[in-house]
Amino acid sequence: MIFRLVFENVRHRPVRTLLSILLIAVPVTLILALIGLSNGFLEDSRKRSAGVGADIIFKAPGGSLMTFSTGALPQKITDVLLTEPHVVQATGTLVQPIGGFDSINGIDIDAFGKMSGGFTYVEGHGFRTPDDVLIDTWYAQQRKVHAGSKINLLNRDWNVAGIVEPGKLAHLFAPLAAMQDILGSTGKVSQVFLKLDDPKNAEAVVASLKAKYDGYGIWSITEMQSLISVDSIPLLKNFINVILGIGVIIGFAVVSLSMYMAVLQRTREIGILKSMGATKGFIMSLILAEAFVLGLGGTIAGILFSFAAKWAMHAVAPASLPQAIVYSWWPIAGGVAMGAALLGAVYPGMMAVRQDPIEALAHE
Amino acid sequence: MNRQNRGEMPDPIIKVRNLRKVYQTGRVSVEALRGVNLDVPLGEFLSIVGPSGSGKSTLFHIVGGMTPPSSGEVWVGGRDLSVVGDSGRTELRRTTVGFVFQKFNLLPNLTARDNIRTALHISGRPTDVFDQEFLDILDLLGIAGRLDHKPSEMSGGEQQRVAIARALATHPAILLADEPTGNLDSANSLAVLTLLRDLNERLGQTILMITHNDEAAQYGHRIVHMRDGVIVETSRPAGR
């Protein structure tokens, strides 16, 4: 019967119900989109790291997995590392962030191609001049460019020599020498990728290198992939917690306001229920049940909106904003919305419970 | 046949002794009831009449457990309302009294059937099936075919009959009617008053009705006249 009462109440005022659900959906969408973006970005990073074909990544002392120190390693170290046992290929790359999560990677295209299996060209060809860049299909879609187009990066016009399939290290590539020249990092690289004779030797080689190069950032690609998480991106977890907090506040405020209005609008109905002998618990359970329904509706709407957000981000910036749908966060986002909704209904519920039945019945 | 018709002296189901009620509005005290004494036997149809401010509504609300007395004794269905708290008065409303109001006060979003089922649910009774006694009441009220309509789809007379049905669904010992014909035209007023009298005579339903209308008051067994917070006269209607 409570369900019937609640259902008829939410149905009777569709605009209020719809607006409440939409507003509760906002924090759910925010949370799911942010988590989706974080996970999508990390998943994309993992795939692109694997696409290099290397077994070990080598960085300068103090280097972390998700940050880059442009030109922190001498390029000559590549040749030195090639002499290590089991190392059969080595290639250095120079990474320069260009805004947001994007970066341009200077590569030795022959060495990089040999390690990664080479690029698959959708349009155009490889580097022919120092002004050539290669971009993957996602970035090409995002920037709406084709082979032969001009693109401005690092305050310089580049010629898009080729469009390649995504999944290898980065979305943008330039000749290593050209990048070193632009960045004033002649003879320097950001990181070195090593390929071994057998991937099973990775842990042993990492241990050997760590003993020899104390303080350097040295990880097997397998270990690196397992370490790429929300925790590895500075402040991301804090940011997520802030968004969760905002979600709780929005959900609380929206439901509190909505239920406050509902209680005011239904003063007379509450009086009628009280005249029939409805207990305080019954009245409170009605208000909470309605908040639960609004919270549930907001959660479902928020989940649907997160799909819409994914579609929108993929359409606008498939390379920079790769959003994943993270199912494991649905109950968390839903819990935040429902918890906030129920919390927001407590005060209006108390108001309803305390109403004097005679005054409530006299309410017009 | 009810007890009164069998000629027995019924016990008072409502017993009021020296009842006083004072409303405090800021620094101003208003004495709405100033020492009311009243006995209502089981099975009686009692009309209470009086001008605005006479205290009849206050008496009605206290007897119905809507507000506590300031002093005095109020026994309703064996319960002393001068000592019970809010939960005790809530229980009284749930188990012992049923209300009919001037403005019908049906839940507007629900059908007549769901209005009745809500009352049953609150009283802790089964809501899926109506018992035979209640089905007889529905027949008497003539609304069995209107149960799936919402209040907005009904006439005032129909709404008031649904309100009576809802009030009686839990088989309360006392039906409290507050100006039940106040919002009805003369034809529907006559129909509702006739129904109340039928419910009293055929089912022995105790009814306490407050009204401004002298004609309506004549449907009771006894008429209590109130003025300035006290009962000033008790009379018998002509022809009863």
What does this molecule look like?
The complex is a heterodimer of chains A (364) and B (240). Chain A has 364 residues and is an alpha+beta fold. Chain A folds into two domains: 170 residues, no CATH class; 155 residues, no CATH class. Chain A has 13 helices and twelve strands. In chain A, helix 2 packs antiparallel against helix 9. Chain A is elongated and about 90 Å long. The two termini of chain A are 26 Å apart. Chain B is an alpha/beta fold and 240 residues long. Chain B has a single domain, classed as P-loop containing nucleotide triphosphate hydrolases (Rossmann fold). Chain B is 31% helix and 28% strand. In chain B, helix 3 packs parallel to helix 5, helix 4 packs antiparallel against helix 5 and helix 5 packs parallel to helix 6. The radius of gyration of chain B is 17 Å and the shape is globular. The N terminus of chain B is likely disordered. Chains A and B meet through helix 1, helix 10 and helix 13 of A and helix 2 and helix 3 of B.
Give short descriptive properties of this protein:
heterodimer; A: 364 residues; alpha+beta; 2 domains; 10-stranded mixed β-sheet; 13 helices; 56% helix; B: 240 residues; alpha/beta; Rossmann fold; 6-stranded mixed β-sheet; 4-stranded antiparallel β-sheet; 7 helices; 31% helix; disordered N terminus
Please describe the topology of this protein.
The complex is a heterodimer of chains A (364) and B (240).
Chain A: H1 2-12, H2 14-51, E1 56-59, E2 73-74, H3 77-82, E3 87-99, E4 102-107, H4 109-116, E5 121-124, E6 132-136, H5 137-143, E7 150-153, E8 156-164, E9 172-175, H6 176-183, E10 188-189, E11 191-196, H7 202-212, E12 217-220, H8 221-227, H9 236-265, H10 267-275, H11 280-316, H12 330-354, H13 357-362
Parallel strand pairs in A: 4-9, 6-8
Antiparallel strand pairs in A: 1-11, 1-12, 2-10, 3-4, 3-11, 5-8, 6-9, 7-8
Chain B: E1 12-25, E2 28-41, E3 45-49, H1 56-63, E4 71-76, E5 79-80, H2 86-95, E6 97-100, H3 112-123, H4 132-141, H5 156-168, E7 174-178, H6 186-203, E8 206-211, H7 214-217, E9 222-227, E10 230-235
Parallel strand pairs in B: 3-8, 3-9, 6-7, 7-8
Antiparallel strand pairs in B: 1-2, 1-4, 4-5, 9-10
Helix pairs in contact in B: 3-5, 4-5, 5-6
